[in-house]
Amino acid sequence: MEKNNVENRDQWGSRLGFILAAVGSAVGLGNIWRFPYMVYENGGGAFLLPYFFAVLTAGIPMLVLEMGLGHKMRGSAPLAFRKIKEKYETLGWWAVLVTAVVTVYYSVIVAWAVNYMVFAVKQSWGADPNAFFFKDYLGATGFWDFGTIKTNVLLGLAVVWGITYVILYNGIKEGIEKASKIFMPLLIVLLGVMVVRGVTLPGAIEGLNHFLEPDFSVLKDYNVWVSAYGQVFFTLSLGFGIMIAYSSYLPKKSDVVNNAFITAFANCGFSFLSGFAVFGILGYMAQAQGVPINEVASGGIGLAFIVFPKAINLLPGMNSFFGILFFMSLVVAGLSSIISLVEAFTSSIMDKFKMTRKKAVSVVSLGGFLCTIVFATGLGISILDLVDHFLNNYGLAVVGLAECIILGYLWKLTTVKEHVNSVSDFKVGNWWDISIKYVTSIVLGYMLIMKVKTELTVAYGGYPTSALMTLGWGLVIALLVLAYVMKNISWNEDVLLDVNSAKEEI
Amino acid sequence: MTAGAIGMLIFGSTILFGGLAVCLNIAMKND
């Protein structure tokens, strides 16, 4: 029975397919709108030193850990942790439940980008993209006024969830792998065109100087190092259970270590290139408006939906073309991440309840779409901002830290190390153990303490206490309780046989 | 571009794309 369970599991058709899907998962909106601004704000090119150090001492080791765990245990995060010890299953569920909520609001941002692709045709945002975005497009309100449901946003969401549903419904090889083989080359082409356009605009060089000119004095500031570790942790899809699920679909004799290195380098290379497109265009924008670059430089939603529409208005020609291209790159980067987020949750449901893929994908996609409706209201952007803040800081970071502690201290880390070294092109040495047990644990622990300290001093975003307690702390705790409930639901007998035989092997 | 910016451009590209090229080369040899 155990054999059937493992052998019936979907598999990637090729190593390239797995790598493209893993890179697609890691490359997302943050690569385009977060990394370049973070470099600019933290000492320019000097930030690359702590960033690369963090990639080597936290990003790649954690990728190897998650990929190795998924490959060895051949299961989604809850199943993989259950195979280690029954009580650790809660951590697996917490990871994928956080992932499920992140998917819901992440899909909203991609839906906005879908709408903006259409708006770019005629630059419908007009001369004041800020007012257009908040007032006309979102009809933004404050807590607890939900306003009205915006049809455009709802249509965008239907497109995003429809595409996700079709891809996941077709499985790993025919769905995710085929989609990744289209999305990733397309994204590289889109980014290539944006980079060439960006760096050839007048004023672009000034923008690139601001992006890369190093200020090495920042290296003495430990906050810059912590920011680098934070960026690395969030950019590589760690703590979501995605890499555990994706690697569980690899054939038994598949490389893990080199695949993790390739995924990390490709993802960070994409971020680095994005900086040239973003700061080339920002440099042009600053010159065209006759203002210093710090007046136009920004990150996040503001960069994508306010600053860039302004920049598109100012382009010397082919404004619609480059507008569509920019928002299309956001859509493609976002979609390739969404399919991985949904897959991490769907595979957990499939494992736990022995549900067929078609049924699980249908239930999760419909449920996900219905949950996103609240984000199409006027209150949507405030809820998104609040939930994102709490889940990123106290959901994913805690999952990452718990992974390091459980696998590094309470279990035998050497089990994963021996496994990955037995199947990989090259092996990990003691540096890997040190990175997981000490470097990543200490940095994530420190980050968490600092965040909680700030949280207790200043109310995030000036939101009312009722919102912070329900959609912030309340949600984080509710997901933890739900994870515990999920852990206590009985597994299918066939899966338990598989779990028990895995425990004997360990 | 300033010398500092060019230096960091070369440094970043070498680490990221050089690293990627080495890993891809190993993967292709072993496949």
Automatic annotation (TrEMBL), chain B:
It comes from Orenia metallireducens. Keywords: Membrane, Transmembrane, Transmembrane helix. This is MetS family NSS transporter small subunit. The chain crosses the membrane at residues 6-27. It comes from the Bacteria. The keyword Transmembrane helix applies.
